[in-house]
Amino acid sequence: IMKQKFGLSLAEAKKLKILSIEQYINHISQNALKFQNSDYNKADEDRTIQEILDDSITHIQANVLEQDPASSSSHEAFAQLRRAFFAMLFIEVLIFLIVNIIDIINNNVDPDNADELINYRKVLPKTKPLLASVLLAFACMVTGQILLFRESARTLISNCRDHNKQNISFMTSLDSYKSNQNTLPILALLEPREECKRLANENITDEITQLNEYVADSNEIAFEIQGMKLRLYADGYQAIETTFDNNTGNLLLFILIMNVSALVALSIFLQYDSEDIG
Fold first, then answer.
1. Cβ distance 20 to 49 under 8 Å?
2. Which are the contacts of 8, defined by CB distance < 8 A and separation ≥ 6?
3. Per-residue pLDDT tens for 150-159?
4. CA 199/CA 62 separation, integer angstroms
5. What does the pLDDT look like over 190-209, one tens digit per residue?
6. How far is Cα 8 from Cα 34, in angstroms, rounded to an integer?
7. How does pLDDT run across 219-246, given as a tens digit for each residue?
8. What is the C-alpha to C-alpha distance for residues 151 and 155, in angstroms, rounded to an integer?
9. Please, how many CA atoms are within 13 Å of residue 145, restricted to the half-sphere of its CB?
């Protein structure tokens, strides 16, 4: 847009160390790229600034807001991942139970009754620690899968948080357009996706509701309200991630305790088993 209207693109202006809109206007006026007379004054500058703002907003609306959304969202991808995760978890638990039940049954054979391959009536002393070891290992496996699933959920939260950061950054870039009425449709789109709202609203429901009910009587107030909402969402995502971190630490400690306990129970079983072997 800048290259077409004034003969100097923003990339070219940056190379010339032009860092502000005022420097840009001074440069094009001094070099007669846009203005043909030497009577350039403040009114011309204000008109040029407004023209740049209007053209920029028009470009954003035409080339950004009207783009077709993605066919699938990160939430849908997460839902598909969750279904695949539960299917694989079911298969893993099933195989674990089959293998270990067979192992327990085989180790419960009474050596004094060779003709009786499986003793259903009583549990041998060596089978008890093996059973305890299997149960503890099962608890470790399930907890590990829970951690894995929570990490996939954390990915969704991180995606929502990154999207919110982009909205905040975009709002900062719109700061020069506060007085332009055409920015309101753009401002209305700077909202988290519905699945992201549901994630964060547990911590910030009341504040967001109050801001949604407030009627802004000017563009500046609308910008302030939207900025406050985005900051609240950022705090909500941060609170969720903090909770995740705390729970993850507790689950990791639980896995460590269960794993050590399973190894102790297994060592007791091996002691019994070595005595049977002779």
1. no
2. 2, 24, 27, 28, 33
3. 877 788 888 8
4. 31
5. 888 877 887 776 668 788 88
6. 10
7. 788 888 888 888 888 888 888 888 888 8
8. 6
9. 16
